[in-house]
Amino acid sequence: MSNRFLKPCTAFALPSLLLTSGAVLAEYKFNFPEPVSPVTKEVFDLHMMTSAVALIIMVLVTIFFVYSIYKFRKSKNYEPDQEFHKGWFGTWSWALVPAIVLGIDLTIAGSASSTFDLIEDKTPADLTVKVTGSQWKWTYEYMEDDVKIVSTLLPKEEAGELYLRTVDNPLVLPTDRRVRFLHTATDVLHAWWVPAIAVKKDSIPGYINETWTIIEKEGNYHGQCAENCGTGHAFMPIQVNAIAGEEFDTWMSKQKEIKLAKMAEAASGKVWALDELMTKGEELYNKNCSACHKPDGSGIPPVFPPLKGSAIALGDVSKHLEVVIKGASGTAMAAWGNQLDDLELAAIITYERNAWENNTGDAVQPSDVKAAR
Ligand code: HEC
Ligand SMILES: [Cu+2]
Q1: Is 357 contained in some domain?
Q2: Last residue of some domain: 216, 245, 262?
């Protein structure tokens, strides 16, 4: 068969395959994700209702048009009715049609305003999570339990098919409990949006916005940052892992234990060896810094400076500590002092001073970081 014949063949075969194969259809999602919380269910219903109204109007108007064009076609020598406006229908339709349209509009607006009321419902919650957007990651703080999770994009090698959909540490939430989200940001506008469980609200630096949810079904829910926040906007996905209440309580006490162990380690005054710091530092660097400075330290000049061979990474330790702890104001370089603890910062800085042939031999200790804060 010649190529000229094959091409149109496949062009027809593909859509018909799609339409006939049930398995393919089942995989193909034409609608929004299934809503699993009171608010998102209402939003979903509102969407379905307006779509249905629009569909009915479209069908009626189309039928009316096709019928009129066919019935009153010129070849039948149809004479337009010059007295139409004088009859009963001709007189009243100008008032009736807008009245019907307004009625439909008000019905939709009525449902929408009750959904808005539900979105703004301020019933006290069982737990509060502060959601902070930054370039380019999400930080979740469980306010009652004083536990913090930093959630970043999972690299392609680990995420596989779910690349750009999954993260290293998902937000873990209990089902059937009322959760209050407090939204804010550290640098620019972001927006936290998981369509199945919560409405979209902007995260604004210096402001707190509020949303809530009660997740009614266990599972993994995915979302995206919904406010263009810079070149890494597509690389800060959201993942929520909803588990049963008791399972959540167990998970939470485990998180607290991990936190206490970390605090004890930091307070122990232990002097860390260079290779221990390097191992920790590499992981933390790749997670927190490589988006801008690149895994090989080459940066993205001129905006994001290379750290390989950088005067700061090779020069005085105190200068290096200062720029990482306090950041560089007016640039994308954040103040990491309030995001990472002493040991984490010591490890990252040690890594930057010894990786990529920087070889300074410096092992920066948590106590150095503490002194520099
Ligand atoms: C969002 C992008 C971004 C991330 C993430 C980031 N940086 Fe930076 N970094 C910058 C920018 C931009 C500068 C340049 C600031 C300036 O112009 O003074 C910079 C500068 C630096 C410098 C000074 C380098 C030089 O030679 O001037 C160091 C050291 C540094 N960053 C370390 C880090 C560490 C450590 C992390 C992770 C904990 C990190 N950065 C994460 C954007 C970033
Ligand atoms: Cu964002």
Answers
A1: yes
A2: 262
Q: Which atom of ligand 1 is nearest to the CA of 348?
A: 35
Predicted confidence (pLDDT) per residue in 246-295, tens digit? 999 999 999 999 988 888 877 777 888 888 899 999 999 988 888 889 99
Do 151 and 250 sit in the same domain of this protein?
Answer: yes
Residue at a domain's end among 262, 291, 315: 262
Around Cβ 290, how many Cβ atoms within 10 Å?
A: 15
CA angle 282, 367, 354 (to 5 degrees): 30
156 lies in the same domain as 48: no
- Choose the residue to mutate in 134, 285, 293 for probing ligand 1, maximizing ligand atoms within 8 Å of C-beta: 293
pLDDT tens, position by position, 335-364:
898 888 888 999 999 999 999 989 888 889
Does residue 110 fall inside a structural domain?
yes
Ligand 1, residue 339: give the atom nearest the CA.
38
What is the helix (H) or strand (E) element at residue 108, kind and residue range? helix 88-119
Residues of the domain holding 81: 30-119
pLDDT tens per residue, range 89-137? 888 988 998 999 999 999 889 989 999 999 999 999 999 999 999 988 9
Residues whose beta carbon lies within 6 Å of some atom of ligand 1:
135, 288-289, 291-293, 303-305, 307, 310-313, 320, 323-324, 328, 331-333, 336, 348, 352
Query: Considering the domain boundaries, does residue 14 fall inside one?
Result: no
- 52: which DSSP letter? H
Residue type, 309: G
CATH assignment at residue 361: 1.10.760.10
The torsion defined by the Cα of 203, 205, 209 and 211, in degrees rounded to 10, comes to 30
Question: 161 and 110, same structural domain?
Answer: no
Calpha distance 237→223 (Å, rounded): 6
